[in-house]
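User: Please work through this fold.
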Amino acid sequence: MRVLVDTNVVLDGLMARAPHLDHALAIFALVEAGRVRGVLGATTVTTVFHLAVKAVGPKAAARHVRALLELFDVASIDRAVLLRALDVGFVGFEDAVLPEAGRSTGGDAIVTRDRSGFTAATLPVFTPDALLAALRGAAGTDGR
């Protein structure tokens, strides 16, 4: 399963934000184990770097971003993605860009804590706990 991981889930894991840390780390672990193919939007990477520089400085921020780039694929945000995002009809433009970027990489789903921001997404949208439960259920049906 190829899953676009929203910025808020990434920040939950990197910034140890309670009470969301455990779910974020569980998703990271699934990506690391190869059970899920994790994808980040390019804007997520730039946002994480910007916030990390403020929190831990530029050298540590670069280490965090490098670690993310080793773990996750990155969905490009190009002209075609931006034009499709304009046509989707989302209230928030960024919330339209990320699903369209995920779709362009063959994504199967989006994981976010802000499902309300993705009501017009053409991909299924899961909260972290719902995605983890769905994956546990799938593992039970195929013997893993």
Notes: The domain at 2-135 is CATH 3.40.50.1010 (Rossmann fold). The chain has one domain: 2-135.
